[in-house]
Structures are given as structure tokens and as C-alpha cells.
Amino acid sequence: MRPDTDTLALLLVAVVALLLRLHHLDASSLFMDEIHQFYYYTGDLAQALQGSLRQQQPPLDYLIGFLVYQVNPGDFALRLPAALFGTGTAVLIALLSSRGIRAMGGDDTLRLPVMVAAGLIAALLPYPIYISQDLRPYSSAIFFVLLLVLALDSLLRAAPPKRRHYVGLSLATLGLLFSRTLSPLVVCLVLGLTLFLPWVLGRSREPAMAAVRFRAQVAMVSALVLYLPVLYLIIANGQRYLDVGNAPANWPLQAVGDAWTAQLEPYGLELLWLPLMGVWAAWRSRKPWDRLPGLVVVLLAGATLIHFVVFHTMTSYSYRPPYLIYLFPAVLILSALGAFRLAELMRQRFSLRAAQWMVGLVTAGLLLHAGVATLDFKSRAIKTDWRSLVSYINRHQPDDFLWISHAPSLSADAIWDPGLYGFLRYPSGGIIGGEVSDLVTQPEIVEALEGSQRKPVLVLFIYRDYLLTSRSRVPLIPRPFGVDGVQGLQASPALERVDLTGLILLSLKDSSGNSREDLSRLLYEVLVANPDAPYLTTVQAAFAALQNTEEKST
After folding, report:
1. What's the order of all strands across the beta sheet hosting 495-500?
2. How confident is the model at residue 552 (pLDDT cuts 50, 70, 90)?
3. Closest C-alpha among 36, 123, 125 to residue 78
4. Per-residue pLDDT for 17 more than 80?
5. CA 358 – CA 364 distance, rounded (Å)
6. pLDDT tens digit string along 369-422?
7. Residue 332: CA atoms inside 13 Å, Cβ hemisphere, count?
8. Which helix (H) or strand (E) holds 390?
9. DSSP readout, 111-139?
10. How far apart are CA 190 and CA 148, in angstroms?
11. Which letter, b or e, does each residue of 129-162 get, where b requires 16 or more Cβ atoms within 10 Å of its Cβ?
12. With CB atoms 3.0 to 4.6 Å apart as the test, which of 8, 209, 313, 465 could cross-link to 475 if both were Cys?
């Protein structure tokens, strides 16, 4: 049997999305957070599961990564699950856009091109590609959000629902809950409450549908009950959530706008009119709000509000753009509904040909705009380039060097200090080194430098705003608050400087052959060249420790 047109359209979206995600999948080194997650794969299964709890995340992404690591430990293989989830996300956006149009009673002549456009835009935008090439539980979580919406819509559209519909809804809920911690809970809460809306608004009071909605809620709650023991362990193993004592007094609403700008780049807020058209189209359809158009509207509005309030009430962390896992897929689906309604208005007022031209021109403009941004994104080095550092070491006889890494102290908790994270993933024979803070806390290390002839090299990790493209207005990963970075870092004439993406290597041009003496002079030259850099506070303490040890020995 030949595949129908919809199947071919979804296959086209899948191929484009997959190719864009496999391209340069392992071009960049694993980033700090990726390496932190990867580290838990190197032991047994218990270590991987415990690692997820230490990171206050459910175990699904860690379990998948651990299993992949047993087959192939390469960067490409470890990032492949995220790429596959991202491909599935683009396909689900196209599929849900199509189902939403049909739920509004739309004409098939215009539905298909709008469906393909929504999927291709989802495949092409820089942010969805980025998270689909990241060894972190973002791509999987977004996929399960859409899978849950699809399962819920399929159950409510069935006449009557079969057992498989309820089982599918429960499994989709469970998959979402096991992907991340806070945002999936918010999504499940909002979608569960949405089942009450038709009754509250007086649009659907049939006893049969009321029973279906009740059983759907039971299916979702059963998944939540299975997840509760894991949630308890997540909360018990860390201080990120329920940290109400340090919660900020003011909620920066701009954070939601920043998330919109970062996730939908290059479109930004100028795209707002299209999803607003989708909201209007959903309202005009006069369908119950637990049908697909209403589900997406309520999900976007309700989850954004509840997530934002709960996050800023129960944690002391900053609200980063990737945390809104439902934002860009919901906006793209609503944009598809809005574009379709606009095309229908054009068809009614003018002709079908005019409506088709309108859809084609809007789609071409959006795809061209996104394509230019994607080319920019693909040509940029965004993550810390640990591979180039190891290559540099190997080119310069690693046995002759002492590597001292440094990062600013952000808090009493050193969990975010990147240190020599890169060497956990990209080892090089003969590397000897440590943290610059060790020179302050461990005097025996300072004493051990006496007699060593290795040339010290100071590795500075650069905290910076991580921008997806050269024209990004909002960083995807903002520089930690209070860290000035090293934009003004100067190198004295006595120092050699090597700049890599995210790293700066500093060493002396002339070595005395004594590691402790050279390290003391290296830190001195760095401080003299940068007397007012708060980033180098730890270097000041390390230099003082070296001087103190030298005076004692004298």
C-alpha cells in the first residue's frame, strides 16, 4: 500500500530534522554540564542512577545515556538520543498542527502546506537544533510534552476510547515525569486541570464525556503516583528545590520574554501576532477546551504562569530560557493554527489561489529567515573547546608541563567550578596538574613543586554569555550573576597567551626550570597585568600561599 500524502509530509520533516541534527553532532567538545552528566556513565548502573539524583533530575536521560555508553562511548553516540528526540519533536509539531487544524474544521487544501511549514520551521530553528545536540535532558523532555498532548488528544477524540488510549496516556505522562523535575510536573498539572475546563465553562456536560475525562485523570494520576518515590529522592538529595529561604523577593518577568527570544530566534516578539491569531482561531472554533487547539493554548498560558511562580517561590536559581520546555513547540503549533485561519480568511474574501500564495510567501519568508540564522549557528564555536586544549598539550610534550586550572568562586558550593572538567572526558597522557585553589588549601602540594622542572601553565575558564548566533539578543546560558568574566584580561610581555573557545592558556616565555618559582612568577605577572580583576581573587590567594611557603623555607 502506497503511503498517503500526510505520511510523506511527515517523512520529509523527519529527514530534514534528522540531517540537521546529525550534522556537526560531535563537532564541539562536551560542555561542562554535559561532562558532569557523562561522568556518571563511566561506573555501574547504580552510579548513573545516583548521579541523576545528585543532579536533582529523574533517571530516564541518565539511564538512556548509560546504556548508550556501554555500546559506544563516543561524543556522537552519547548525543545521538537527544538528536533522535529532537527529530521526533519536529515531526510531532507538524502532526499536532495538522490535528489542530482538523479539530477547527479546516479545509485539507490549506492544511497540508501549513503542516509541512510548521514541521520544517521546527526542524530549522537554531535553538531546537542546539538542544538536540546537547547531552542534557531537554530534548527528551520536550518530546514527551508533545507526546502527552498527542496521547490526551487521541483519547478525547476516540469514540469511545479503548484501553490502549488510557495506557498510552499513562505511559506518556510517566515518560514526561521521568525526563526532568519541575517543568514536567507543571505540564501534567496544567493538562490535568484542563480536563475540568469544558465543565467549568459549561460547554460540555455529557455524562459519557465526563466519565472519559475522569478516567483520563485517573490514568495521569496513576503515573504520578508511580513517580512520587523518585520525586521524594530528588528533593531529599539536594537543596535546589524547596529552598524558600533564598527565594528572590522580586520576580523578573523579563525572564519569560528572554526565553521567548532565545528559543524562537531569529523571530523574536515580532512573531507574536501569529500565535495570537492561533489563540483567536481556537476560541472561534467553539470546541471544548480539552480539544487540541484549546489544550495548546491552556498549556502555554497556564504552564508559563505556574512554572514561573513556583520556580521563583521554591528555588533560589536563576530562570534560564531552556527551562520552559513547552514554549517553542506550543508557539509553533499556535502559529500554524493562526496561519491557517488567516489563509482561510484570504480564501473566503478572495480565492483559494490567493490563500495558497499567502501561505507560500509567509512560509518562504520564515524558512529563509530561520535558514540564515541556522547557517550562522552552525558556523559558530559556542561550547568550551576542550579538544583543542588536549591537542595543544599533545603537540607540546605534555610530560614537560604542569597544568593549573582556575575558575572564580561563585559560592561556598564548588559544584559549578569547571576546573579541569575537560580532562575527565578528553584525557591526555602525562598530564599533571590541579586547581589553583589547591595551592591555598593544601600546603603539601606547594612543597611537592620544589624540585619539579615542569613548566606551569595557567588554564583560565571563561564564564561568558552563550549566544546561539552572532545576532542573538539574549544568551541561552547567561554568565553567572556577579562574574565579570575576563574580557579585560591582559597578558604582560613576560607571558605567552593562547586563546581557545572558552579557555585562555597563560605561561612564562622564559622558564627557570623550577616549578614552584616559575608558578609564583607566573601568578605574579598575571596579577600585575590585571590588578583590579575580581575574577582573579583565587589567583591572589594562591600567590600569597606560595610566597608564605617560600618565606618559611627561607
Report:
1. 433-435, 401-406, 455-461, 503-508, 495-500
2. low
3. 36
4. yes
5. 10
6. 999 999 999 999 888 888 888 888 878 766 677 777 765 443 333 444 555 667
7. 37
8. helix 386-395
9. HHHHHHHHHHHHHH-HHHHHHTTSSSTTH
10. 12
11. bbbbbbbbbbbbbbbbbbbbbbbbbbbbeeeebe
12. 465
Amino acid, res. 462: I
Query: What is the residue type of 140?
Result: S
430 — pLDDT class (breaks 50, 70, 90): low
Determine the residue type at 87.
T
Say whether pLDDT at 551 is over 80.
no
b/e map of 172-199 (b: 16 or more CB within 10 Å)? bbbbbbbbbbbbbbbbbbbbbebbebbe
- Retrieve residue 136's grid coordinates: 542534557
Q: d(Cα 148, Cα 176) in Å, to the nearest integer? A: 8
Taking only the tens place, the pLDDT of each residue in 113-155 is: 999 999 999 999 999 999 999 999 999 999 999 999 999 999 9
Cβ–Cβ < 8 Å for 479, 465: yes
Residue reference for cell 502506497:
2
Q: What is the chain's Cα-based Rg?
A: 27
pLDDT higher than threshold 90 for residue 197: no
Is residue 515 within 8 Å of 453, Cβ to Cβ? Answer: yes
Q: Which of 402, 378, 293 is nearest to 337 (CA)?
A: 293
Residue in this structure with the C-alpha cell 591582559, named with its chain if needed: 490
In this structure, the number of other CB atoms found within 10 A of the CB of residue 399 comes to 9
pLDDT average, residue stretch 162-169:
95
The pTM assigned to this predicted structure is 0.91
User: CB neighbours (10 Å) of residue 82?
Assistant: 27
Query: How much is the pLDDT for 549?
Result: 67
Give 403's strand partners.
433, 457
